Amino acid sequence: MRRVLWALALLFSCKAPSPLDTPDVLQPSPQASAEPAPIATPLVASLSPEGGPPPTPMRGDVALQAEFATGKELTGFTIGAVVRLPDAPAVPSGPTIAAAAIDVMRKQNEPRFTIDLTPSRMRMQLASNGFLLARDAELRSRVDRYGHLFFTPDVASYRVLAPGGLRAFFGERRADVSPLSPGDVTIHGDGPQRLGYHTRRAEVTSRAGKGVFEIAKVPELGDGGALLVRALLDLMNVAPQVMVVGPDELPLHVELRWSTRGAVFFDVTSVTKRADLSALALAVPPNTAAFTTGPISAVAGEVRVEPKELSAIHTGPIDLGPQAASVTAGPLTLANPHDTPRFAWVDGAPVAWVAAEGRIELASLPRGRYQVEWRSFLDDAADPAKMLTVPVLAPASADAGTH
């Protein structure tokens, strides 16, 4: 009997490490070669194999202790990623519609990321003009802290985004924290092959919506993929403790469908192994960056295309009758009547975003009729398309936001 009891005690004392355990900042994850545990229900991160505490949530009003990174180069991965709207505004048909030019504008204004991942760090750089935030700004994260740091493009200052802060930050330019839900995780077997990797599928549901993750095994990635998943879960208002990936796993395709309306797809477009990642570029935070709080600087909005691109939406002016016969081009005022920022899509091209109750002007549009549609960044809010005339022929059509 004593032998049986001893064997049972030995069995229950063996504990598999958690995928959210925290390796040293400059060292590969000790779990890099471990197999992921089965996913069934949301789990809270346990103590690390070294006996350390679980990740600590960041606070928006408290600076993090600076990391004095050396010039050491780290091994990791650089991935390219893009955010797409599966139900993007359609390009209208017509003899003057320049579909090829509109397609170029759509692609250049897709939200794109360049993401550096190591076993314990993540750096997400905004690599296009497709955001409400400045191009080349950065989001950085580390495995031993829940939440993220957001850096200005010059990396001179950063603000702390506590868990639950990414949805309002990316969607509305506000550093507000939303309540988090535990989320429910289920497995759906094998997924399609992507970028030469076999994938498995996992589904996460929350009050905000549903996320479908297609996950690949990427050797030597460690817990870097878990950091990316935390950011995506934050857009769903799901707690970062919810485990969707194991060590050495990376989501290659994620579909986030909202409870209100709409969806966004996150697609990894490239995966490149690196041995020259800068430790300073992955410091969270570096000692050279100043901590800041408060709201983001208010602006009325930003035009995301050049004037020559805007004038190329149509191949030329169209006949609008004798009232506009002498005018070949004119401005279009975009007025956002909502209390949140919106992107303005003109003939299917995302040409600008406008702040809440703000307005900006598009100049030198060829004379004609244009389809204008308002969408939120996360596509969880939208207005029906409206046809507007340039130049303005009547006071009632003066603003693209008039209802």
Mean pLDDT: 84
Instruction: Give a count of the beta strands, DSSP E runs of length 2 or more.
Output: 20
Q: Could you spell the SSE succession in H and E letters?
A: HEEHEEEEEHEEEHEEEEHEEEEEE
Q: DSSP helix count?
A: 5
Strand fraction band? 35-45%
Short recap of the structure:
The protein has helices at 2-13, 99-108, 166-172, 224-235, 307-310; strands at 56-57, 73-84, 112-117, 121-126, 138-142, 145-151, 157-161, 184-194, 197-205, 209-217, 249-258, 263-278, 290-291, 301-303, 329-335, 342-346, 349-354, 359-366, 368-375, 386-390. The chain is mainly beta and 403 residues long.
Describe the protein in words.
This protein has helices at 2-13, 99-108, 166-172, 224-235, 307-310; strands spanning 56-57, 73-84, 112-117, 121-126, 138-142, 145-151, 157-161, 184-194, 197-205, 209-217, 249-258, 263-278, 290-291, 301-303, 329-335, 342-346, 349-354, 359-366, 368-375, 386-390. With 403 residues, the chain is mainly beta. A hairpin with a 2-residue loop joins β5 and β6 (145-151). It is globular, with a radius of gyration of 24 Å.
Write the layout of secondary structure elements.
Blueprint: H1 2-13, E1 56-57, E2 73-84, H2 99-108, E3 112-117, E4 121-126, E5 138-142, E6 145-151, E7 157-161, H3 166-172, E8 184-194, E9 197-205, E10 209-217, H4 224-235, E11 249-258, E12 263-278, E13 290-291, E14 301-303, H5 307-310, E15 329-335, E16 342-346, E17 349-354, E18 359-366, E19 368-375, E20 386-390
Parallel strand pairs: 1-6, 7-13
Antiparallel strand pairs: 2-3, 2-12, 3-4, 4-5, 5-6, 6-7, 8-9, 9-10, 10-11, 11-12, 14-17, 15-18, 16-17, 16-19, 19-20
